[in-house]
Amino acid sequence: MKNILLIILIAIAATGCEKFLDKRDPKATTFQEFFNTEEDLRRVVYSSYTDVFTTVTDRRLLFYMQDGRTDDAYSRISGDHHQLIANGSMNSNARLSEYYWTIHMKHIGRLNTYIANVDIPYVDDEAVRENYRNILEGLRAWHYFIATSRWGNVPFLLEPADLETAKQPAKPKEEILNLLFPMAEEIANKLPPDEYTTNAYMFNKYSLKALIMRYALYNGKYEMAARLAKEIMDSKKYELFASYANLFNYKGDKINKEFIMKMDMPSHNNTATNSFRDLGPQYRTGPGQSYSVPTKALVDAYWTLQGRPIDKCPLYKKEQYELNPKLNRDPRFSASIFGHGDKFSGEIINIYDENSPLYYKNLRASSTGYWYKKFVDEADAFKTSGGNMHFPLLRYAEVLLTYAEAKIMLGDVDDLAKSCINQIRKRAGLDMSVADVTLTPKTKQEWIDLIRNERRTEFAAEGLRYDDIIRWKTAEVVLNKPALGHTRKIDDSLVSLKIEDREFLTHQYLWPFHESSLRVEPGLKQNPGY
């Protein structure tokens, strides 16, 4: 394998991006020859999103597949990588460690080249050029936020690499973040405050600040996270959509003001979306493949209608809740998950019926007996061409819960923090005569337990769980248990479907560098434990 940073240098200098090969001038051989118009500038911004962040074809990158890395879900195809991360098979020789490292470093290299040459293309309005420059710099920051979350110390380049700079040692994560956070905020402040009329998926001032807010929380910079969340709230640009369930289907995906960062149809050139295929059930002639499905651990995580854990509710026994997940449950459960005993396309699901396509042992059925309802609209059930779903990459609910968590961790649970949680719970449909968090005093640990579970159920299937269990350092607990599925009673005993054993070792909080990368990149040092 060639040096990844040299690949970046060579690929950028020669072509910039594969999509440029579709240019009008097939004789163009250098970057400068085909980077000369405003449309060229727009194209590199567009491709910088769709190649990694808004792709609809690569399940390794799709946000709704990434809960398969956690205790919340099971990803049935090992080549999608999520299964291997969840069951502890990730090591320095695994293809996945090379794949993700390469894709982030490759795109950082491209972005460095685009930014360095952003003054070359002709534009009618210099404000357009400046806006594209800021979006490209925001995307580069996004890559670095992810890279430092996964590997810790990484090379940090803000200019196109040459043979010498490509060999520089990795910079400590904290040094990178100390540079990156103020840099990203400065970029955000130069962006327009409103969503664009077209290309709404591109960064504006508040969507980039929301992303910075997310990674401030992830990295324990709670004062920054709370400040940014408050600024976004005060902007009045976003609001909770009235129906939690309809946010994730065609009734609400395109009309809400909750999606702050979005994956809409223009973000991937209006190609068909495949969330039904990826998450939905195999049913008759339908396309569902059940590639990622919820586990019992997630099902049991939904608290009661009154906002209590199922093992601390005086109304019913825990066993009753396990056998009947819809019993007295947080309405977000029914809005997010369906399975055995529910209706699909007018028929009752029986995962234990060997003659049913939904039989749990069938390849394209769910081995856990559950499916996500989020992003699985029955309107797509029998389409062969896919759907046109809009997806949230970051929504206003995360702003509210980020403010609340940051204030909890700071030991300053103010009225606004409590209101943020209550807004989320009220919209979800909980019984606020009991679930109102202002009704009873709580210890700091009780607040922590509450906010962590609130995030888990609010954002199920939205790709946030992995970063949460990594930053909370709970992965070593929740991923050292078998992945289980539907529970039923057999001979007076509760029996749950068993999918796989899992193991998580403490060194896996950071990902390994692939052995081939270490051989050719002298600046890299393998993370401990690998």
UniProtKB/TrEMBL annotation:
- Please give an example of a GO cellular component term from this record: cell outer membrane
Where is the protein situated, by its record's location annotation? Cell outer membrane
**Residue stretches making up the RagB/SusD domain:** 257-530
Q: Name one Pfam family in it.
A: SusD_RagB
Sorted keywords for this record are:
Cell outer membrane, Membrane, Signal
Superkingdom is Bacteria
Cite the InterPro entries for this sequence: SusD_RagB_dom, TPR-like_helical_dom_sf
Q: What is this protein called?
A: RagB/SusD family nutrient uptake outer membrane protein
